[in-house]
Amino acid sequence: MDNIGTGRFEFPAQYHKFHKDQVFNFQLNRWYSLGYARLEDMQEAGHKIASFDDWKTEMIRLGEKAITEERFVNAAFYFRAAEFYILTDNAEKNALYDKFKDCFDRAFGKDPIDRSDVPYGDSALPAMRVPAKSQPKKGTIVLHGGFDSFIEEFYSMMVVFSEHGYDVVGFEGPGQGAARRRYGIAFDYEWEKPAKAILDYFDLDAVTWLGISMGGYLCFRAAAFEPRIARVIASSVAFDYAKFHNVVAEKVGKFFFTRLRKVSNYKMKKMIERGGMPAWMIGNLMYIANAKEPIEATDLMLNLNASNLHSDLVKQDVLILTGKDDHFVPFKMHDMQVKALTSAKSVTARVFTKEDQAQNHCQIGNIGLALDVMRNWIKIVSSTQMKDGMTM
């Protein structure tokens, strides 16, 4: 399939079989699909990786090689890839994060990127603004990721929106990127709080709000309580991460619930010791939540439920993009989220399939198509809103 060109970046329109294991295959596709990795590098890595240790070794090797060849875009995201699958928060993980940031700045340092530390309580949220490259400006798009994203990951998408006449503001909220690593801000599902801080700081109104991955949950929580958001786009939805509550624990009372928590905590510690994907998932969640025990991190998950989402309070125009074969989020969450938006001004739902090459989580495999869908939808609903008297 042909690549979709967008000026600075090209988004390949194909989901590749780089690795037999989806744990590695998705991540290899992720960086290639977003326009940051070379095809031959991902193919080579796919043949060499058999474990998390292999992943780290190969990604660092590719990053160092890219630096010697002054391919700083590639280097940045190979170091990010290496950092992503390190199982525990340690000095090596921090060093790779610093390498990622340094290479990103070397790659894009001359671009018109306005970085800010947005006041947030006694701390700050990192943000980057990319101005519209054409006039008159069509509006402002605010975007963010989910649990563990870095805002730089979405720079290629920000550039596309900028090239099509939008100011774009990306930020890292509680638990994400430098908000967690530099400022120590733990994850908080009450996303209207960082939303307010960003909108206040940049003096924004009537924005399009884009949430990616778990951001597809957080964006609805923000929109439910923040009227300055006019349009909402969810690239992947979660709706109710805590759908399967421990009913038994709720019924048998506090004493047994406490014992159950202790047993669960012990078992999760053992899983961390054994390594592998479960260890990474638990350890990563503990870091994001700033939790000392695994069970404290699972408490965070229980807050990510339909009740706390308040879908019924979302009154904006909504676009939902879902991959039919999303391996992170059960597809049934798509219909559940659509049906829960009972007060939305409009709901447009697009399901991507294998024929689109965008059937995976967050449309990895065909980012260009997803961006086209987003831009066309914004154009349509913005035109309708202006006819209805809403200013842009």
Describe this entry's structure for a reader.
By secondary structure, the chain is of the alpha/beta class. The chain folds into three domains: 13-108, de novo design (two linked rop proteins); 114-241 and 304-387, Rossmann fold (3-Layer(aba) Sandwich); 247-303, no CATH class. The chain has helices at residues 22-33, 39-48, 52-68, 72-84, 91-108, 155-163, 177-181, 192-201, 215-225, 247-252, 254-274, 276-289, 294-303, 306-309, 332-340, 367-387, and strands spanning 3-6, 9-12, 114-120, 123-130, 139-144, 166-171, 207-212, 229-235, 317-323, 346-352. The strands form two sheets. The protein has an eight-stranded mixed β-sheet, with helices on both faces. It is globular, with a radius of gyration of 21 Å. The model is unreliable at 1-6 and 244-257 (pLDDT under 50).
Layout of strands and helices, then pairs:
Elements: E1 3-6, E2 9-12, H1 22-33, H2 39-48, H3 52-68, H4 72-84, H5 91-108, E3 114-120, E4 123-130, E5 139-144, H6 155-163, E6 166-171, H7 177-181, H8 192-201, E7 207-212, H9 215-225, E8 229-235, H10 247-252, H11 254-274, H12 276-289, H13 294-303, H14 306-309, E9 317-323, H15 332-340, E10 346-352, H16 367-387
Parallel strand pairs: 5-6, 5-7, 7-8, 8-9, 9-10
Antiparallel strand pairs: 1-2, 3-4, 4-6
Helix pairs in contact: 1-2, 3-4, 4-5, 8-9, 11-12, 12-13
Supply the key terms.
single chain, 392 residues, de novo design (two linked rop proteins), Rossmann fold, 8-stranded mixed β-sheet, two-stranded antiparallel sheet, 16 helices, disordered N terminus
